[in-house]
Specification:
- Helix content is about 20%, strand content about 10%.
- The chain is of the alpha+beta class and about 90 residues long.
- The radius of gyration is 21 Å and the shape is elongated.
- It starts with about 20 loop residues before the first helix and ends with a helix.
């Protein structure tokens, strides 16, 4: 899937700023007040992506690692995996 259906031209202001068009922000799911990252890619392009903000409440991350059909690991399972990894297994 292409990033945009058509090329979008943006203008750099005298202060060196670029304003992203509303259609681009909507496509990226960026709202006023959101933060974004800007990364230079090896091909010389710039990638802009929204930063996924976690809620202030730790409960907001509950279940993010859940995989349907997988049994939840116990503390003992985790410890066994750590020990196996440390032993090079």
């Amino acid at each position: 899937m292409p990033y945009f259906d058509a090329m979008t031209t943006l203008t750099v202001t005298a202060k060196g700023q670029i304003t992203l068009k509303q259609s681009i922000l909507q496509r990226l799911g960026i709202k006023p007040g959101d933060k974004v990252t800007a990364s230079f890619l090896p091909n010389g392009r710039l990638e802009i992506a929204p930063i996924q903000q976690l809620g202030a409440d730790v409960r907001s991350v509950r279940g993010i690692l859940h995989r349907p059909g997988m049994k939840a690991m116990t503390i003992e399972d985790m410890q066994d995996a750590i020990e196996a990894g440390a032993a090079g297994e």
